Structure formats: structure tokens, C-alpha cells
Amino acid sequence: MGRPRHGARLVHLRGGAQGDVAAGSGGVRRITTLGIKDKSKHCISETTGNHYSEVDVYYFCTCFYTFSAYDTLIVWSEAENYDLALSFQEKAGCDEIWEKICQVQGKDPSVEVTQDLIDESEEERFEEMPETSHLIDLPTCELNKLEEIADLVTSVLSSPIRREKLALALENEGYIKKLLQLFQACENLENTEGLHHLYEIIRGILFLNKATLFEVMFSDECIMDVVGCLEYDPALAQPKRHREFLTKTAKFKEVIPITDSELRQKIHQTYRVQYIQDIILPTPSVFEENFLSTLTSFIFFNKVEIVSMLQEDEKFLSEVFAQLTDEATDDDKRRELVNFFKEFCAFSQTLQPQNRDAFFKTLAKLGILPALEIVMGMDDLQVRSAATDIFSYLVEFSPSMVREFVMQEAQQSDDDILLINVVIEQMICDTDPELGGAVQLMGLLRTLIDPENMLATTNKTEKSEFLNFFYNHCMHVLTAPLLTNTSEDRYEKDNIVGSNKNSMICPDNYQTAQLLALILELLTFCVEHHTYHIKNYIMNKDLLRRVLVLMNSKHTFLALCALRFMRRIIGLKDEFYNRYITKGNLFEPVINALLDNGTRYNLLNSAVIELFEFIRVEDIKSLTAHIVENFYKALESIEYVQTFKGLKTKYEQEKDRQNQKLNSVPSILRSNRFRRDAKALEEDEEMWFNEDEEEEGKTVVAPVEKSKPEDDFPDSYEKFMETKKAKESEDKENLPKRTSSGGFKFTFSHSASAANGANSTNSKSVMAQTPPASSNGSSSKTATLASSVTATKGSNPQAILAYRG
């Protein structure tokens, strides 16, 4: 077969990330205006000569769907709700076909869109005209006129003015009820053709988008017949049984009998109209997206009325709450009550802010939060899930209301039954392998502890009060799985020692790893937003050391979470944190992870490098000195980045500056300074750091050895310094000596014994050769790798939760 005259490609326009799909190429053979079945445009395949696509021109010639022309492209929408395009090789061929399409539709080919254009002045004139002067003459409502009625309804949809005229005609003549009587007759006579026409008519009337027509169509008298008409889609081989589903399958459950008949009718109507919109009607195409806006508004205002009517019925709500909290209520009944409240709260989202505020205050007054506390602890997964959704509505609306409740509750209840602790327990005990519920609950907890949405007035400081409450009553519950899974105690009974112990202590269970990652994400948020509260907790529990145990996890995402936690701490550039890290030798597990990663260029490698690059760029002197003096020999072989060489350079530059300052001091003062031991120099440096360090409300982090409430923070550093000096004197005696072989090892242990400087079996070691001795016989300070550095022992955590991994 020769090449078609009008070469073109038929393209399915899918849009988005999926892109367009070419259905094939060929040529347009004919566009006719004969019978309905012949009104087709045929594209012939160039390779096989077969008809690969037939596009129904009759449908779009009725003006319901519009054509657009763009140089060599003609675009339209099909009834199946996807867009199509003919892409022509030549503009002349495109123009010729465009003229023929416009001729079939009776449109002007000079206009690039076949949909009727609206003149604002014409619209204004239409509004000013008397209602009866421009009505469309409707055919008589008879069986033999159904095809004519269907053509009329479909033809006006492209013109807003004609839609208005038709809507007025339908409303004034009570036409819809007459059509539904014909539907009953067609069904009794099994008149399939008539039923198909009625489907087109009722669907078209819905697309007129008129609230007055919806009031008639969705009345109790008419709505089921409307659903019946929409069952007979001509595109389907068999009609759908929507009425059977609505009357037999869908059950209306009254958790408490509703005595208001108007309220019952409104609930039934809303459910059925929502079913029509979501199930029966197809997803609107780009050309139809605004055609059902009034239908959406109809459902919206119905929900507003339902919520308002229920809210005003205090007797009804009081009875619901009474049964929900009654211990005698059986599980099935309680499940229905919780599901009712879930839907009730979902409907409340349609209220205006002022009305929504009154709605949630009403629920709070009736006791929604104590009720949630009960149902969230139940074993029924469906009930817990619904309760979580209700809780999310409350937190989203007013986190302050929830915080106020839990703080008042703490004065009367034990920690174990506090609402927030119940929420944390549900997060920890989530049985979903993907922890979907835990993720949702973690987001709610983050909202509750976010200082950005806490109030601070002259009479009330919500931020301070709530954070004190949270860290005193809830934080130990949140961190229990983390401390339990990084504890040595669970492995000592199995006599696991050395490197095996360090690897075994890291949980390899994927679900446990996911949970620990969620907890670390929340703790990282606390580091960023809670300043001294989390600082005190980290040091009291030696929390960073425990977190860094997770650097050994086989799950890279968990190791990255642990690293991110440390990165946020270092990002604060707080010298208290810096001293805590250096004294505890807490860079060691990070460096071990980097060296174990080898030459692999992955996310873990990049994250570790970024951590050290931040220290270099920000010139954090105490950390730079610690890294270079203790770890440079292990890191100097890494040359694909200049980070570690840059740290060495920064360190040497700072050392030179200090030497120059020392040389500028008079000899008498210098000799006196030299007589002072290294301990005195270190104390001077620490006192210098402390001069400018003031926390919120002059609050100072308590010593690591003793866990104290944050309300008991000292007002000065004196107690801290006295304790620290005594501890360092003890540590100095226990510092390991350099081995005679000239080799050094640095090891990391999270155990309490390591924290106290006691000897423990190495979990990992990195070896480096001793550099040649200097001329005066002393070894170079920069060549020394880290020995076991003492850290203050944190309090031994007691896991009060039974964690189910």
C-alpha cells in the first residue's frame, strides 16, 4: 500500500511522569457524516495495512468533547477519560483535516478550539434577561423521544449559556421526575435502547452542575431511580447493580439510635451521593474537571449540616461517650463507637475554623481524650487504628489542648498510663512489618514536642512546663528500646565477648532496626529544638555512646540514623557536647565504620566525610585537635578527599599560633606557666570555655555521673568543675601506656566498664605504626592513635516496656 496522503501518528497523552504513548502511525482516510456507526476517522497502518484505531467522531461532534489545533497537532478527549492527539508530518495536512472536523461540528476552522467561546457581555445580558424569555424548548417526555432528548442534553454541555437555559427548562417543567417515570417503564419493558438513552440523559443533567436540579435528583423519592439510570452504561456489556449494593450490602449502623428523622435522612442522602460521585461516575477528564464542582459542594454542605446537628444533640453525644468508656461495653460495640467518632471527626474537617474550634472543644468537654486513652490500649487492631486517626485530628487541631490534658493527668496518674506514654507504647509495639502506624504516631509525637507550636505568655510558659514533664515522665519510655538493644547485659549471660559481642549487640532484625531508626529520628529532632533538656538527658544516660553502637548494624539506614544524630550534636558547636565527645572518645566508632567501609563509595562514606568536613570548615578547634592527635595516622591514607589533610593543616596552624603567643610572653611569666602541670592548663582552657556559655534561664547541664531532674540544674559551673577535676585526676592514673612494640590500638566499647576506664576486650581495633622518634627522644603527638579514653558512666537504664520486636 502506498503512503497515506495525510501521514500522522496517533498518540495517547498520559502526561506526568508516565509520558505520552504512541499508538502507531498511518494516515487519515475519511471523516464522514453518515450514520452513527460510520462517523469514524480511520488511520491505516503503514506496515500491515490494518485498521489499528477507530476514533468515534460522532461522540465528539456533539460538542461534549472539544478539539484543539496546534500547528501539526490536533488534540481531543475520548469518552474513556484519556486524551488523544493526531500528530501530522505536515502543517498542510493538519489544516485540511482540521477544516473537515470543524465542518462536521459546524464550527469556524479559524478558531483553534471548537468549544464555544464565552463573551462576558453576553453572560451579563443573559443574567439580565427574564427567566422565561430564553428557555430551551424540550421535547415531550415520551419513550420515542428519548434519543432526541439525549442529543439535546449532550449538545448543550459545551456552552455555559445553553447549559443555564436547559437547567431552567428542566426545573420549571418538573421534567426530571417525568424522565424517571420513563426509566421505570423502560425497565419493566426491558427496553435496553431506551435505558441507554436515559443513562446519557441523566449523566448529562449531572454535568449541568446545578444545585437546584441536584435537590430534585437526590431527594428520597428520586435518588434510587437516578442510580438505576446510571447502571445502564452503553459501554458495558451488563449493567452494574449499584442499587442492590446500596439497599442490601451497605448497612446503616446506628451506634446510638438517632431519633431525629431529618438527621437520618441527611446521612442516607450524603452516603448515596458520595457513592455516585466516587463509584458510579468516571474520573473526570481534563475537560470535565469543573463540571461536577457543585456536586462536590453539595456533599460538603451536607456534611457540615450533619456535624452541626450531631453537635447540638448533647444527649446523643453524652450517651456515646458513656458507652465508649463503660467497661461493660462489649468489643464489637466499642469498635462501632470508635469508628463512628472517626467518621464524625473526618466530617468536622468541612467546618469553618470557628465552628471546628467549638466542635473539638465540645468533644474535649465530653471527655474524648480519656476515652482515647482507654481504646488505644485495646488489643483490637482496628480499634487502635481508628483511635489513632481520631488522636491525629485532635493533635492537628490543637496540640496545646492535648499537652494541657496530659500535664494535668500526670498529677493524678502513674507514668505507665499517661496518654503520651500509651501512644509511645503503641508506636513501639506496632506489629506492622512496615511500621505504618508507628510512623504516624511518631509524627504526632513530634508535633506535640515541637516548641514552635507551644504558647508562651506572661501567665503561662507552656514550653518550659511541657518539656520538663516530657523529659521527666515520658523520655525513658521512648528510649527504652534503644537502651535495651544496645545494652551489654543481655549478652553477658551468654558469655559473648570481644568483637563477637559488639556485632551481636546490634539488632539485625529489620523491624527492630526500623523502630530504632524512628526513635533516633525523634531524638535528633529533640537535639535540634530542645537545647538543654536533651543535653542533660544525653549526658546523664551517656546516650550518644549507646547510639553509636548502632554504627555496627548491618542495616545501613540505621547506621546513618546514628551518624545523623551525632552530626546534629556537632552541628550545634556546643563546647559542652564537644568535651563530652572527646572525653568519651566517641569519634572512634565513626572512624571504625569509615575504615570498615573500605573503598566503597556509598552514602555511609559520604556522610562520614561530610561530618569531618563540617568540623574542618567551621574550624571547631577542640574536635580538630582530638581527631588529629588521636586518629590521623589511621586516616592519612584517605586521599580521595582533602578533608583529613585539611584538618591536619588547621591543627598545625592553630598550634603555631599558640606557640607564637607563648613566645611573646615574658620569660618570667613563661617559666611560671611551665611549672604548672598539664592538668592546670586544661582547667584554664575549660574555665575560658565556660565564661560565655549560658543556657536558657541560666540552666547548666548536670554532671554525667548523677541523673537529676532539669529543675535542679545548678546556677553555676562550680559543682560541675569540682566533680570533673576529681574525676580527671582519677582518669589520669588509669590512662593506658604506650606499648613497647611501638604500635597503638584504639577501641570502642559502650559498656559501663569502658566508660570508667576499666580494661575490656576490644571490639574493634585499628592499627598504625609508630612514627620515628624525634631528636629529643619523644614521640610525635600527632602520631598517637586513641587509647581507651575514659568516659563518665551513665546510669544503667531500666527498660520499663516489654518490647515486642
Automatic annotation (TrEMBL):
InterPro entries associated with the record: ARM-like, ARM-type_fold, EVH1_PP4R3, P4R3-like_central_dom, PH-like_dom_sf, PP4R3-like
UniProt region (Disordered), positions on chain: 685-805
Biased composition (Acidic residues): 685-696
Top-level taxon of origin: Eukaryota
Gene Ontology terms: cellular component: nucleoplasm; protein phosphatase 4 complex
Record domain PP4R3 EVH1-like: where: 70-105
Biased composition (Basic and acidic residues): 705-736
GO biological process, one term: DNA damage response
Listed Polar residues bias regions: 766-798
Residue intervals of the Serine/threonine-protein phosphatase 4 regulatory subunit 3-like central domain: 148-653
Low complexity bias spans: 749-765
Family to which the UniProt record says this protein belongs: Belongs to the SMEK family.
Protein name per the record: Protein phosphatase 4 regulatory subunit 3B
Organism: Myotis myotis
Lineage start: Eukaryota, Metazoa, Chordata, Craniata, Vertebrata
